[in-house]
Amino acid sequence: MMLGATAIPHYMGSDQSYTVALPLPYLIYRGERFKLDRDGARGLVIDGGRVSLDVGLSAGMPVSGGANRARAGMSALPLTMEAGPRLNIRISKDAAAVERIVRIPVRGVFDVQGRGYGWVLEPRYTARFDSQEDNWKLRLDVGMLVASQRYLETYYGVAPAQATAERATYTSGSGLHSLFAYVTGDLPLGNHLWIKGFTKIRTLAPGVVRDSPLVKRNTNLTVGALLIWLPWQSDERVNSLDLASGK
User: Fold this and answer.
1) Which residue did the predictor score with more confidence, 84 or 6?
2) What is the pTM of this model?
3) Backbone angles phi, psi at 193, to 5 degrees
């Protein structure tokens, strides 16, 4: 169970957000082939030790034209799902419990009716620091998001019929969408209770959609903390440093 609240932008580059109030369920499952944890939902396909391949899932929130000022009068953004393979390359894991890994996921984007919205490529470098004595964890992620023209047109394109005096016509090509950096930390407060802090920054400034009239905020910064309670835990624990390779 998670306690707290967080704000999620309507879409990347929006100056409006959804406020998600907690509590929400917090689930961790680590089977041999399927895992659900802080790295998301994924199924292991190939495990070669330092190199592994899994299939990941994620989702995008819907946005109605009436809820977002920049998109007023435009078609709603659908609830989307993203699924596709992810290559994991473990660079190192040393005695000080520091792990470095490169992840290269490619995901197709589609709505609940099966309509496709292109693809996204989101390579990232992850460094994990895991204190064996105090059980605290720190994680750094840096990377980029590259997307197809159809994906970028869905979120940032403005057709001539949708143009207004404040919203010019805009067509996007494929390419770099944004750069990002995340820092997250876990600090235990007891056997079943811990606090998770996070700082996330994403910038669209170097991306191909920076000039879209629907981009109202080039850089988004999110800072927050969550209180997490796990009343039930399995007897067998998996070290978080083993998760990156799918183990």
Assistant:
1) 84
2) 0.81
3) -135, 130
